[in-house]
């Protein structure tokens, strides 16, 4: 071992879902939106100014923050934007989770949470979900240095009511509570309603799922001014130009087409509900998802086998070879046609 190798930070990185470079696959493994972004996004893309590429983008992304603030009935000072919600949450760890006490998140949840804790050297404790994967409010009533959980939860898809969220926030007013609402638009009530009431609540959302723009990397957080200012101070200490010119412009255009957003998210919800019926007929069980995926387990056939067999048929779903969840597959809701192909394949595999 060379001397400098002793000083290299060893981290176990997050493992993202596969992005296969194969033609003709059905991709149901990373919770992307099956529909393209609104036509307005393509128009905004064509209207980009060549000369603006030469310049640094607006470090404060004012145009985008104003558009988000307008759509969610808040002010620019209450909005923080980042390169996907992953970037926003990573900044949150650095900004808000600096206590010696452990931060809390559910033991079955977004697998990036422990990775950020390790990389930012934040102590953490995983609180146990119930026997049906439900988040238990009382598990968050213990000493902590901060709290984060997704609503709906990933990979289970289960959602928590606003009353339950309020209890968690209200009983932890000495900590910052982050509600990660990556999938909220697929049928869960947002905690945004509570941000004026609680100065320790930060709500994080993304353009990657319900707004069909995962490729542009846009995430945002809404909370009281003190939280947003603290986040900006940390962000500007790393890199002031995180949000590029194209993302700012396309992010504004997406927010401007609310009708299209409503149409596509409703289509996905309808396909999800139909998929629940089909999967039940095929012998699967699953928590009642309110997200754009279903976390399904087959009564008799092993998840890993189904995963491999689907892959042979060029259908990609997500399988986590981890304790407690290794008998489940996380299946993203695709178009109706894609889902029909999935059911056809499953009929062969589990028959
Ligand atoms: N939170 C959760 C719960 C997620 O599943 C994801 C998607 N991997 C993210 C945050 C991050 O999404 P993005 O960085 O694309 O906004």
Describe the structure concisely.
This protein has helices at 39-46, 62-71, 84-96, 112-119, 162-170, 225-238, 245-255, 258-281, 303-312, 336-350, and strands spanning 26-27, 79-82, 103-106, 124-127, 147-150, 177-180, 201-206, 219-222, 284-285, 293-298, 315-316, 318-319, 329-332. It is α/β, with parallel strands linked by helices. β5, α5 (162-170) and β6 (177-180) form a beta-alpha-beta unit.
Write the layout of secondary structure elements.
Blueprint: E1 26-27, H1 39-46, H2 62-71, E2 79-82, H3 84-96, E3 103-106, H4 112-119, E4 124-127, E5 147-150, H5 162-170, E6 177-180, E7 201-206, E8 219-222, H6 225-238, H7 245-255, H8 258-281, E9 284-285, E10 293-298, H9 303-312, E11 315-316, E12 318-319, E13 329-332, H10 336-350
Parallel strand pairs: 1-11, 3-4, 5-6, 6-7
Antiparallel strand pairs: 2-8, 7-8, 9-10, 10-13, 12-13
Helix pairs in contact: 1-7, 2-7, 3-6
The structure holds 4'-deoxy-4'-aminopyridoxal-5'-phosphate.
4'-deoxy-4'-aminopyridoxal-5'-phosphate (PMP) is lined by residues 84-86, 110, 150, 154, 180, 182, 206, 208, 214, 219.
């Amino acid at each position: 071992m060379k001397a400098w190798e002793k000083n290299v930070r060893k981290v176990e990185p997050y493992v993202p879902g596969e992005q296969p470079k194969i033609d003709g696959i059905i991709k149901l493994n990373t919770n992307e939106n099956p529909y393209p972004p609104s036509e307005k996004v393509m128009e905004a893309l064509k209207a980009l100014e060549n000369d603006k590429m030469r310049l640094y983008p607006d470090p404060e992304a004012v145009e985008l923050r104003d558009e988000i603030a307008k759509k969610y009935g808040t002010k620019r000072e209450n909005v923080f934007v980042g390169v996907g919600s992953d970037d926003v949450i990573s900044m949150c760890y650095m900004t808000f989770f600096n206590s010696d006490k452990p931060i809390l998140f559910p033991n079955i949840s977004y697998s990036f949470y422990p990775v950020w804790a390790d990389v930012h050297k934040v102590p953490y404790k995983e609180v146990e979900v119930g026997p049906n994967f439900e988040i238990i409010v009382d598990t968050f009533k213990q000493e902590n240095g901060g709290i984060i959980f997704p609503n709906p939860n990933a990979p289970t898809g289960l959602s928590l009511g606003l009353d339950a969220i309020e209890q968690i926030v209200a009983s932890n007013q000495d900590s910052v509570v982050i509600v990660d609402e990556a999938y909220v638009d697929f049928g869960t009530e947002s905690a945004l309603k509570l941000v004026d009431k609680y100065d320790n609540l930060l709500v994080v959302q993304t353009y990657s799922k319900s707004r069909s723009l995962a490729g542009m990397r846009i995430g945002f957080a809404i909370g009281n001014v003190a939280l947003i200012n603290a986040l900006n101070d940390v962000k500007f200490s790393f890199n002031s130009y995180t949000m590029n010119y194209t993302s700012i412009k396309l992010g504004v255009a997406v927010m401007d087409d609310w009708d299209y957003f409503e149409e596509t998210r409703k289509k996905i919800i309808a396909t999800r509900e139909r998929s629940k019926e089909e999967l039940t007929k095929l012998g699967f069980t699953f928590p009642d998802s309110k997200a754009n995926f279903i976390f399904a387990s087959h009564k008799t056939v092993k998840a890993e086998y189904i995963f491999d067999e689907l892959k042979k048929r060029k259908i990609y779903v997500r399988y986590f070879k981890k304790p407690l969840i290794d008998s489940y597959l996380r299946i993203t809701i695709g178009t109706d046609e894609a889902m029909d192909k999935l059911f056809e394949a499953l009929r062969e595999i589990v028959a």
